[in-house]
C-alpha cells in the first residue's frame, strides 16, 4: 500500500469517527481540511433511492445558489439574428449556429453550459451523442432551451447549478469554494439539498435521500445527518 503523505493522513485523522454531522459542522470540518495551494471546490454528493433506468424515477433540475459557485462559467448559445445579439450582450462566451455545431462535432467543447433557442434544436439535436454524456444537452426542463436567452445566460453566469441523477442514483455538484465564508457555504448547501428534495420524482419509492456527503477537491468526505439537512 502506498504511504500516505502528512497532509492526507492529517486530513483523514481529522474526520475519523465523525459522521451524520449538521451542515454547519460538516462545512467547518471540510473547509478546515482544504489546505491545498489552490482554492478547492466544496462538493456535495447525494445518494438517492431512485433507479434512473425508469423515466418516472429520473431526478434532474436546476438551482440558483445564493452565493454562487465561485467558478467562472463558460456559456455557449445556439441562436441566430437578434437572439444571437442578445446572448452576446448578456455575456455568452460562444454564440453560433451551424458553425458552432461543426466546431463541437470536431471535438472542441470549450464551455460548461449550453443554451439554445427552440428554433435551433434541429441543429442541436444532431449533437446528442456528444453533449448528452457530458450533461450539456440543452433541455427545456432546466431552462436551457428558451427564447429568453438573456435570462438564461445571466443565470448561468450568476451561479446557477444543474443537477442530474447518474447511474446508481447519485447526484453531485460543486457548491462553492473553500475560500467562501462558512455561512455562505452553509446557505449554498441548504439551497442545493432543498432543490433536490423538491425534484423528487413520482416513481420514487421508499427512502428518497439515503446519504449526503460533503468534501473538498483534495480532502476526505464527511456524511451529513440526512433528516436535518433536508429539514425534516
Summarize the structure.
The protein is of the alpha/beta class and 232 residues long. The protein has helices at 6-15, 23-33, 81-90, 98-105, 121-124, 128-131, 149-157, 182-198, 226-229, and strands spanning 41-48, 60-64, 75-78, 94-96, 113-116, 160-164, 170-177, 209-216, 222-223. It has nine helices and nine strands.
Indicate the topology.
Blueprint: H1 6-15, H2 23-33, E1 41-48, E2 60-64, E3 75-78, H3 81-90, E4 94-96, H4 98-105, E5 113-116, H5 121-124, H6 128-131, H7 149-157, E6 160-164, E7 170-177, H8 182-198, E8 209-216, E9 222-223, H9 226-229
Parallel strand pairs: 3-4, 3-5
Antiparallel strand pairs: 1-7, 1-8, 2-6, 8-9
Helix pairs in contact: 2-8, 3-7
Amino acid at each position: 500500500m502506498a504511504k500516505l503523505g502528512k497532509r492526507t493522513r492529517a486530513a483523514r485523522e481529522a474526520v475519523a469517527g465523525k459522521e451524520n454531522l449538521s451542515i454547519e459542522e460538516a462545512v467547518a470540518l471540510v473547509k478546515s481540511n482544504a489546505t491545498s495551494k489552490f482554492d478547492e471546490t466544496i462538493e456535495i454528493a447525494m445518494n438517492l433511492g431512485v433507479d434512473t433506468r425508469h423515466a418516472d424515477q429520473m431526478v434532474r433540475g436546476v438551482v440558483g445558489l445564493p452565493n454562487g459557485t465561485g467558478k467562472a462559467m463558460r456559456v455557449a448559445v445556439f441562436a441566430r439574428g437578434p437572439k444571437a445579439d442578445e446572448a452576446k450582450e448578456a455575456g455568452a462566451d460562444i454564440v453560433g449556429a451551424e458553425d458552432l455545431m461543426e466546431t463541437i462535432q470536431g471535438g472542441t467543447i470549450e464551455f460548461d453550459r449550453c443554451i439554445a433557442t427552440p428554433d435551433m434544436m434541429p441543429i442541436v439535436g444532431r449533437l446528442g451523442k456528444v453533449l448528452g454524456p457530458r450533461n450539456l444537452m440543452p433541455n427545456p426542463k432546466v431552462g436551457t432551451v428558451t427564447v429568453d436567452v438573456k435570462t438564461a445566460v445571466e443565470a448561468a453566469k450568476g451561479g446557477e447549478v444543474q443537477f442530474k441523477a447518474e447511474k446508481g442514483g447519485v447526484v453531485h455538484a460543486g457548491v462553492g469554494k473553500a475560500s467562501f465564508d462558512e455561512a455562505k457555504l452553509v446557505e449554498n448547501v441548504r439551497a442545493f439539498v432543498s432543490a433536490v428534495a423538491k425534484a423528487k420524482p413520482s416513481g420514487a419509492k421508499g427512502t428518497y435521500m439515503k446519504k449526503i456527503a460533503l468534501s473538498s477537491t483534495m480532502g476526505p468526505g464527511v456524511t451529513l445527518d440526512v433528516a436535518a439537512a433536508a429539514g425534516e
